[in-house]
Amino acid sequence: MLTRADKKHFHLWLPNIFGFKGGIQVYSAFFLQALQSLYPQSQYDVFLKLDVQTSADIAYLSETKFHFTGGYPQKIRTPAFVSRLITQGLLQNPDLVMTTHMNFTIAAYWLKRLRNIPYWTVAHGLEAWDIQNSALKTALHHADLILAVSGYTRDRLLKEQNLDPKKVVILPNTFDGSRFQPAPKPSYLLKKYQLKPEQPIILTVARLSEVEQYKGYDQILYALPKIRQLIPDVQYMIVGKGNDRIRLEKLIAELELQNCVTFAGFVPDEQLCDYYNLCDVFAMPSKREGFGIVYLEALACGKPVLGGNQDGSVDALCHGELGALVNPNDVEQIADTLSQIILKTYPNDLIFQPENLRQKVMNHFGFESFQKTFASYLDSHFPDDI
After folding, report:
1. Which of 99, 150, 196, 248 has a CA-to-CA distance to 364 between 20 and 30 Å?
2. Is a pLDDT exceeding 60 seen at residue 386?
3. Are 20 and 49 a contacting pair, CB within 8 Å?
4. What is the C-alpha to C-alpha distance for residues 321 and 307, in angstroms, rounded to an integer?
5. In the chain, what are the domains?
């Protein structure tokens, strides 16, 4: 039994959890859920920079006090948020401040200086690499604990910031295993996109943002002509929307791939599992991914997964145990590996065993595992509660 009877007062500083569902937002929601499951008798003040109200989509204890700053005009939102963090921190003197975005640690550092309030922060990916802000560097060095979502992010932080290795630990991403399960290809999607059940489908789920081209969808497009030489009827489907789509459409025209690439656009959360089950392989050969929750969701649906070998994808795929890792800059390798997976000649047999694949990813990254790891760090911080 993981529940702790001791009452604490926690301050959680989160970017947002009730609206936009990016990786940090999803992690933050699970973070809150796990903490409240471990300490159900505790007091919670949750400060949300971008949200304006709660939603029934996220579970939380009824006594939780939420403080919203999302309704403020953008120009004053950050100072208003920071002012509220500092003011309420000084007034309430919580037992522990936890932030799920590293930029918030600067305010936490000042609270610690003024009232000796300990603070933890979470390091995801891009925001944790190549840090130049001196105030943020100082705040990280004085943090009581830094929770990195992957070994890759932890290693980069330690190397670049010269932090104490004992203060930087790993709490990997998790996901809702009940929402993602193996199933036959949905007939309504086959009909919608005029696809045959036996037709091989490669899938990517990603924001199509100009600043996120590192996700690797370009590389799959460049690999498609070679894949089609072996598998002429292969289809590539991209789920997601963003301002990079126009550029991609031009690239598709240049490569003459109009008849084998489909943009599915935005897909509601409740339909996402169906899209994973529609594909034969999920591919995102990224090179700047902090972790990649989409890999876990695809694996939970029993799908073979291809990721890059130069970022946090390595952690999500357990260094190749759960999927194929390729050089994201090597189009030939991407083409060859995707062809092997589709033709079922790839040497890792596990990726062709849906139920075993699902069980492995649940064991490694399911919410129960996430909460157990989280509990171990909290027990070290509050040893008298055990």
Report:
1. 99
2. no
3. no
4. 12
5. 9-174+366-385 (3.40.50.2000), 177-362 (3.40.50.2000)
Q: What is the DSSP letter of 204?
A: E
Give 151's contacts (C-beta < 8 A, 6+ positions apart).
Answer: 170, 314, 315
Q: How far apart are CA 259 and CA 236, in angstroms?
A: 10
Sequence-separated (6 or more) residues with CB below 8 Å from residue 132? none
The 10 Å CB-count burial string (b at 16+, else e) for 37-46 is bbbeebbbbb
Amino acid (one-letter) located at 349: D
Give tens-digit pLDDT for 332-342. Answer: 999 999 999 99
Rounded to a whole number, what is the largest CA-CA distance in the chain? 67
Whether the model pTM is above 0.85: yes
Average pLDDT estimate for 212-239: 95
Which residues, other chains included, contact 159 with Cβ-Cβ below 8 Å and sequence gap of 6+? none
Sign of CA pseudo-dihedral 226, 228, 229, 230: positive
How far apart are alpha carbons 173 and 24 in whole angstroms?
9
Instruction: Measure CA of the first residue to CA of the last residue in the chain; give whole Å.
Output: 11
